[in-house]
């Protein structure tokens, strides 16, 4: 592939002298023919596919053409640029060549022994099987994995011990906040991290900070800044994952404010599902449609979007109201026949807000 790309580029470079030596009239006529032919092909072909050599050649020629004429000369759209950037980021973080095999399967002899012991001891649970063998003894989990290859989906607690999970979570929601990191790759493939917080009760989102090096000291300072500016009277619990950035000093800052820090189980992102949800929203509605230039750019657009998120974006969990409306009360119905609705563009038109004209 590399040799073919070098050959294609070299061949096109050698054709430049012949083009430069032609007279201006013939070159202009040929350019008009090629431009018209290109327009016809664009109408007939829904999508043009470029090889790596084509992209390299177009990138080299783009330096000779004024930027304001790129839209007429090249068929590359903003969506194409975003797709190329996503592909470049995925290629950089692709570790498939270094992938290692997973845990080896259980030996057939061990499986046969476990099943035989289970059949011979029907009244004894798996936890008692290792005690019936000589060392080295199989682990308890091995017996359960062999006897129950598929997890049971019909388990249920007895009625007296069954709890209404939704009722419990709703009652505690106003006292819970959650934090998690959002990572973004800039246009030059530099990875940035944003610390995002979500209030479970009001669904308000907060940006605690943006950095390229999220150390424990940085997270601790971000926590202090949040507690100094926010009203934490009703907050009792903070949910976070087990990332190394959340140190004991980070937990101590919230503990001093009367907030108990709860660590989610290892490798269990669903335990912090609400915060994962807002991170997914930030990606789908904002970051997937923009190329981030630097740390200041990311901080600015996240702050502006969270302002829209808290004051204008409806949420299903709070009856299609935004957090500000849920706290102040739902607005009164308005007869649209007697009012005009104005549109306000946010972040260059990526997001639209609508309000009654004053």
UniProtKB/TrEMBL annotation:
InterPro entries: Integrase_cat-core, RNaseH-like_sf, RNaseH_sf
GO annotation, biological process: DNA integration
Domain of life: Bacteria
Record domain Integrase catalytic: where: 169-331
An example Gene Ontology molecular-function term: nucleic acid binding
Xref: Pfam families: rve_3 (PF13683)
Signal peptide: none
Protein name: Integrase catalytic domain-containing protein
Taxonomy of the source species: Bacteria, Bacillati, Actinomycetota, Actinomycetes, Streptosporangiales
């Amino acid at each position: 592939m590399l040799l073919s790309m070098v050959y294609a580029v070299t061949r096109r470079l050698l054709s430049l002298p012949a083009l430069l030596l032609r007279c201006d009239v013939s070159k202009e006529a040929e350019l008009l023919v090629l431009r018209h032919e290109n327009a016809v092909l664009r109408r007939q072909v829904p999508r043009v596919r470029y090889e790596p050599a084509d992209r390299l050649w177009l990138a080299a020629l783009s330096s000779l053409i004024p930027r304001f004429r790129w839209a007429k000369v090249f068929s590359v759209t903003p969506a194409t640029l975003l797709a190329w950037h996503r592909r470049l980021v995925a290629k950089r973080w692709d570790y498939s060549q270094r992938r290692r095999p997973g845990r080896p399967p259980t030996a057939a002899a061990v499986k046969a022994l476990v099943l035989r012991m289970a059949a011979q001891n029907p009244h004894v649970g798996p936890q008692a099987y290792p005690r019936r063998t000589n060392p080295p003894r199989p682990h308890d989990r091995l017996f359960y994995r062999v006897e129950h290859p598929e997890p049971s989906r019909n388990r249920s607690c007895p009625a007296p011990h069954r709890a209404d999970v939704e009722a419990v979570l709703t009652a505690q929601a106003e006292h819970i906040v959650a934090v998690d990191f959002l990572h973004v790759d800039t246009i030059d493939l530099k990875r940035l991290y944003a610390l995002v917080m979500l209030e479970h009760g009001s669904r308000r989102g907060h940006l605690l900070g943006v950095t390229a090096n999220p150390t424990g000291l940085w997270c601790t300072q971000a926590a202090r800044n949040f507690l100094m500016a926010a009203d934490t009277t009703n907050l009792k619990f903070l949910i976070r994952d087990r990332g190394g950035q959340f140190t004991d000093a980070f937990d101590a800052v919230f503990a001093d404010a009367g907030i108990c820090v709860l660590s989610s189980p290892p490798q269990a992102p669903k335990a912090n599902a609400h915060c994962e949800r807002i991170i997914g929203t930030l990606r789908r509605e904002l970051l997937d449609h923009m190329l981030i230039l630097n740390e200041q750019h990311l901080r600015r657009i996240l702050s502006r979007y969270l302002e829209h998120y808290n004051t204008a974006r409806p949420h299903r969990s709070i009856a299609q109201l935004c957090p500000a409306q849920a706290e102040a009360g739902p607005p009164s119905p308005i007869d649209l026949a007697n009012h005009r609705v104005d549109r306000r563009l946010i972040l260059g038109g990526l997001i639209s807000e609508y309000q009654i004209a004053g």
